Model the fold of this input.
Amino acid sequence: MDARPPQRHRTAHPSAPFSIWAVVLVGTVCGCGDPPPGCVDAGASTSEHGARVNATPKVGPLTLTALAAPPAPEPDRIVARFVPSREEPLWTNVSGRCELAALPPDAHGVVPKGSEGLYLHGSMEKSFEIPGPIDSTTFNQVVANVWIQSKSRMRMLLVRDGAPFQGSGQIDVSSSSLPQRIVGDFALTRFHKRPIDAIQFKVGAHAGPVCIESVELLWKDVRSWFPLPGSPPELLGVEGEERMASVVSDEIGVGERFLCPENGTLAFSCTLPENLRFPGQAPTLVVTVRSASYSSETRIRLESDLRRPARWLDEEVPLEAWGGEWVDLSFELKVKGPHEAFALLETPRIVTPADQPPTVLLITSDTHRADHIGIAGANPLVRTPNINALAKGGILFEHCYSTSNITIPSHVAILTGRHPRDTRIVDNVTSLARSASTLAEAFGANGYRTFAAVSTHHLGDALSGLGQGFDRMAAPRANERSAHATRELAERWLLDSQREPVFLWLHFFDAHYPYEAPAPFDAELREDIADTQEMMDYEQERYRGEVSYLDTELGPLLRVKRIREGIIALTSDHGECLGQHSIFFEHAELYTDTLHVPLILSWPGCPPAVRVSERVQNSDLGRTLLDLAGLEREAFPGRSLVAGKRSPEPNFAISYAGHSASVTFDRWHLILHLQTHSAGNGDYSPTRQRHETELYDIGEDHGCEVNLIDSETAVGGRLRSLLLGWLSGAEETDLATDSDISDDALEALRGIGYAGLKTERSGEWAELDCDCEWCGKFE
Done:
């Protein structure tokens, strides 16, 4: 990381009558020249160029446009093309059985004459290589033209000295009877000083026969890799930290014209991604503020050393000199040498002094049981002094239930107010569609900066879709990161937004299996565990250590002044089975172990040390936080948890893959298994039969140990009918979409206890028109 401060150079100029926006702003809606009387609406005025403009001083995010028309990207160039041939075999290291044969028919059913393809057979992973030497500075994309029978994934690798040194990542390939162009990006090839020895291709198992027609090496204009300057901002990231940003290039700058407020400050951040750097360019972002009487220039040196990781530079430019004036703002990128350059620019914003900007903090502690906070019961299982202090200063909901036992579905419910029944997101490989309305979007529409820092990879925007509406989102590139790392990132963001309202979502993954808390919270390593009970005791001790570690990390955050004086919510997406029901250290099934979660609310003026015994569901948190922030008129699903006494309502939940559904009402908890499935991932996990039903009196048996379905069949029948009626009322929201998940990410999910398989989302949740024993019980 470069510890040197950015290099700045500020230059003041005398009166500058020329405006970079003159061409755009000449004329009005009434025609060219000055507007006639009565043409300009009240509340608007004209600039010195006669343009009709909004006379309200600008505060908040700026809408940047390109300072010139971006040139169209150059067309792709084919640098080389490799075709299988009997005369000149260029294909080596082919795995499995292979043969040269006629190509399959094209889209019109015509078999190309005189052409052959390389067929790879077998059910295991298939691979082949194109040998070199190949000058890698001449291309930045590799295209494989293939036929693949079944959905699979391909990976392309550049090989030198016998080992891969750069790869394309996993590329999804659809099953099709027609040829497909599979494209791998290699932005860094332009930096290579030596030719590569080979290009290696790997096709995942179960792809069926694969036919390779040809491989092409392309040079693709880098200008087409990112949104063009002036395009709407997108979540663009470096080092796992994404920000709503646009692009500025050495050819095209961006800017905006606005009325500057008194005591305003221009705030923004910028970076140069590692894969777009070129040695010796000395990239400098030039920020120019110009009015009719005064102009100033700020130069920010961007990191160009290929050995240093990219990082966002947070910058501010004081605007006091322009208070009350119309100003032209521009961002331009200057570099040395002939190579193109592109920088990422987080959406700039105009901020003004604010004594106490509001803060809303949502904390989700993954896999956190309700009974694992110190204040939960008379005999606490774990020490959590910081969480206890939060509860003592606010409201503890003693009976909060989640909507699912899976991370992404439950978080989607919290952040959209919509139940998994309606989103149809019931696994960790399905994303929230962009058509959804989110809590972050609601706060952002009301002037809040919106930040999300999550501690597991699969909650990142690319896999979950939960980044929409957030100005910033950070997820670990590895499977998970510690609470310490996530907290430090959040505190840095808060320092960068001291004068602005902030909605911050922090997700912590520490209580999730495997339980590996750092010292001194870790349990002493034991290798002499004799039986199942000892194993359970040991793992439960390790789980408690994770929760205590998390509490310690929350302490400094909760003592930050603006956090302490803001709105705070702490909850969990689901709980954990710690050996109960023969489910060991995972959150399978819909027992209270996995659905009963903590919920604490605190806000300025909140009545302290209140305990609410009413049963609630944390999918109502979004509505509640908006109301507490004074945004009652903002449309959002749900009911406020603090709007007075609520009439009792049933709580419903849906499990992973829609295997089961549950209803909790009054003292009863009923689970209906919709499909035959294993209750957990372990070898000894029990099997639940299709339509099997469980009923528990959680008033007396909160742990769901005694199934009363045979003795309380009438109660079970009523609750079963209630649950089936609710399932049949599912809305058609079209909010689920496939995520772009790689084989490596799937394996990582399996490593932390998730099957990681996509589930079918269409059709009815329950199909009970059958004559099985379980259905017969309730006729």
